[in-house]
């Protein structure tokens, strides 16, 4: 038996860190949403019980380090599954970009194997398992738009933002999430107004969303990598309505309401950066 699952990228419309916890993680408040740039996960079950991973991009690990492998391994061990699986990952989401590519691959693998291995688990159960793999995996299991708290694994779904375009620009560097969080000084940051962001989304106020875009990790990454700051400045200069770095970066996204302006921002950025994508937000009715 086979099945294919889409694994979309996420962006953080806001990301606030409340405090550093005893376990080394940060207590966060994040508003996350999916965009229609996606990896594809093809799963084929195997009678020999093995888990095999193959990835379209040779530099992504194809062993136990791959988060999709970890998802399959976790399900297999936890539910004592005798079958194995061949996982083929067609990567389209840039890697180590702040777009949760690996986390989304893991979430898609959990969902696909739930069907393939007929485990009958609910989304809530898959999300709890996902949290064992990484902080972003639970959100990726549900998709849509959500408030994520705890270390990112406590998910409360909210309305989808109004339709708009999203330009993603990724400079040619990879950023370590652990390193960025390590350099964050929670005592000194200007906090995000998460409530105002939720309210803007509930009221379908595009202007309100743009006004409340805030990511406390942005200053850290911008100080470490001037090229990320440059992309942010260019995105603003070319006229995106709202601009923010996603996650721990280095991808910067720009929200654009009108298609007429989309081309100017997209073409302008192409002059500075090779990895530029024009995508849409995924509304929960689209999935
Ligand atoms: C930056 C974000 O992508 C925003 O969505 C997430 O907060 C990070 O999610 P992720 O990549 O799934 O992160 P994980 O693999 O769970 O954690 C990587 C490292 O980031 C740091 N980390 C992560 C999440 C969190 N709430 N606090 C942290 O301090 C920890 O040092 C951890 O060892
Ligand atoms: N399926 C996968 N796809 C991409 N990278 C993976 C995968 N599994 C493991 N990795 C490893 O994880 C690292 C981070 O990749 P990923 O693309 O998930 O980062 P990210 O977009 O910054 O994630 P996040 O936004 O959740 O912090 C990569 O350097 C890669 O070696």
TrEMBL record:
In terms of domain of life, where is this protein from?
Bacteria
Report the GO molecular function annotations.
4-(cytidine 5'-diphospho)-2-C-methyl-D-erythritol kinase activity; ATP binding
Q: Which residues form the GHMP kinase C-terminal domain?
A: 197-272
One Pfam family this sequence matches:
GHMP_kinases_N
Q: Which residues form the active site?
A: 10, 136
Q: Which InterPro entries match?
A: GHMP_kinase_C_dom, GHMP_kinase_C_sf, GHMP_kinase_N_dom, IspE, Ribosomal_Su5_D2-typ_SF, Ribsml_uS5_D2-typ_fold_subgr
- Top-level EC class: transferase
Q: Under which pathway is this protein filed?
A: Isoprenoid biosynthesis; isopentenyl diphosphate biosynthesis via DXP pathway; isopentenyl diphosphate from 1-deoxy-D-xylulose 5-phosphate: step 3/6
Residues binding ATP: 94-104
The reaction(s) catalysed by this protein are: 4-CDP-2-C-methyl-D-erythritol + ATP = 4-CDP-2-C-methyl-D-erythritol 2-phosphate + ADP + H(+)
What EC number(s) does the entry state?
Answer: 2.7.1.148
GHMP kinase N-terminal domain boundaries:
66-144
Keywords recorded for this protein, A-Z: ATP-binding, Isoprene biosynthesis, Kinase, Nucleotide-binding, Transferase
Q: Which GO terms describe its biological process?
A: isopentenyl diphosphate biosynthetic process, methylerythritol 4-phosphate pathway; terpenoid biosynthetic process
Q: What does this protein do?
A: Catalyzes the phosphorylation of the position 2 hydroxy group of 4-diphosphocytidyl-2C-methyl-D-erythritol.
Q: Report the sequence similarity comment from the record.
A: Belongs to the GHMP kinase family. IspE subfamily.
PANTHER family, per this entry? 4-DIPHOSPHOCYTIDYL-2-C-METHYL-D-ERYTHRITOL KINASE, CHLOROPLASTIC
Q: Could you tell me which HAMAP family the record lists for this protein?
A: IspE
Give the protein's recorded name: 4-diphosphocytidyl-2-C-methyl-D-erythritol kinase
Q: Which organism is it from?
A: Halalkalibacter okhensis
């Amino acid at each position: 038996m086979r099945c294919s699952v889409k694994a979309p990228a996420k962006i953080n419309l806001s990301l606030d860190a409340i405090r550093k916890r005893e376990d080394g993680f940060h207590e966060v408040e994040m508003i996350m949403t999916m965009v229609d740039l996606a990896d594809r996960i093809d799963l084929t079950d195997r009678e020999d019980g093995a888990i095999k991973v193959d990835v379209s991009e040779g530099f992504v690990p194809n062993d136990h380090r791959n988060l999709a492998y970890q998802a399959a391994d976790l399900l297999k061990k936890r539910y004592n599954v005798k079958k194995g699986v061949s996982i083929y990952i067609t990567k389209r989401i840039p890697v180590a970009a702040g777009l949760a590519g690996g986390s989304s691959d893991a979430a898609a693998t959990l969902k696909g194997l739930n069907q393939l291995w007929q485990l009958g688990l609910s989304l809530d159960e898959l999300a709890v398992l996902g949290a064992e793999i990484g902080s972003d995996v639970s959100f990726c299991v549900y998709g849509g738009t959500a408030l994520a708290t705890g270390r990112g694994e406590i998910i409360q779904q909210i309305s989808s933002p109004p339709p708009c375009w999203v330009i993603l620009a990724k400079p040619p560097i990879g950023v370590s999430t652990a390193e960025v969080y390590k350099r964050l000084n929670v005592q000194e940051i200007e906090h995000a107004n998460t409530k105002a962001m939720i309210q803007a989304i509930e009221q379908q106020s595009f202007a309100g969303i743009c006004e409340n875009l805030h990511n406390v990790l942005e200053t850290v990454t911008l100080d470490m990598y001037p090229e990320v700051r440059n992309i942010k400045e260019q995105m603003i200069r070319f006229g995106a309505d709202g601009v923010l770095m996603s996650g721990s970066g280095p991808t910067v996204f720009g929200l654009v309401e009108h298609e007429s302006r989309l081309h100017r921002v997209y073409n302008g950025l192409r002059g500075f950066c090779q990895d530029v994508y024009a995508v849409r937000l995924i509304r929960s009715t689209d999935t």
